Amino acid sequence: MSSVVEKIQAIGLIPVIKISDVSKAVPLAKALCKGGIPAAEVTFRTEQAAEAIRLIKKEVPDMLLGAGTVLTPAQADAAIEAGASFIVSPGLNPDVVKHCIAKGVPMMPGCANPSDVELAMSLGLDVVKFFPAEQAGGVKMIKAMSAPYGNLKFMPTGGVNESNLNDYLSFKKIIACGGSWMVKADLIENGDFDQITALCRSAVNKMLGIELAHIGINTADEADASAVASKIASTLPIDEKVGNSSIFVGKIFEVMKGAGAGANGHIALAVNDIDRAVNYFSYMGIAFDEASAKKKDGKLVAIYFKEQLGGFAIHLVQKS
């Protein structure tokens, strides 16, 4: 995969936007970034598309921008000249694909059946858009269709929303999902950018599935840990389970037998897919302590952020 496609995979969500009023382009881009999705596919369904890309590229340079509904080489040129880093189309036009490849710009054509997929692969592509996703059979169709094509990845778009998002993202051959539910036309037209930010945050939270797993409490030594754990257990009340380095009180508290991670302790956050979460947070500028990584059967199951928050070390854990 190209570096651009790797960025798409790290972000995980690509809002598909239609700009009819270029004055809305930059505020919309800022709303997406504020909501935790620094990316967008600007569709060439309006004459303002290229100018919208150009303005966003100038004012929000860190945003990952693509152009969608690109139907001709001329549209691809206009998008690339304006600053688009990737091109997406609803169908597979070999002329457009070859043109983008010659330009060195990642291209994801719409594919909905094995014939489309094989043509895309014959043109040298390893990532395609699956469109229209829900109408073409959804994630079940992608799983069935992808079986013979080991290295091919998909970005489904069309009918994807917050309720089915994780059905798609749970399949490892899906790099990201495109959708417009967080950037509805009426919200853009009315300039309701706060609501767009809120919908983006909700989508990111849905994708990551962050939940509190437990809170770690540091103590002076084993005796202190036992006293603290007993106090918690008798107060709440919940059961204690003594381990080698800590005492769990229910599933909520881990009382460390000494100074554990973090000045005050640690907070464990369970996520849907720890690899996707690490990629997302890394893209957003969060550094991880690689030495803290724990694996089971070769798969990552836990890892700490480098930075503490409020005196607490933060670590991600894979949901079981």
TrEMBL record:
E.C. code: 4.1.2.14
Domain VOC: 211-319
Sorted UniProt keywords: Carbohydrate metabolism, Lyase, Schiff base
Keyword field contains Lyase: yes
Pathway in which the depicted protein is active: Carbohydrate acid metabolism; 2-dehydro-3-deoxy-D-gluconate degradation; D-glyceraldehyde 3-phosphate and pyruvate from 2-dehydro-3-deoxy-D-gluconate: step 2/2
Reaction(s) catalysed by this chain's protein: 2-dehydro-3-deoxy-6-phospho-D-gluconate = D-glyceraldehyde 3-phosphate + pyruvate
Pfam families for this protein: Aldolase
Stated family: Belongs to the KHG/KDPG aldolase family.
Full protein name: 2-dehydro-3-deoxy-phosphogluconate aldolase
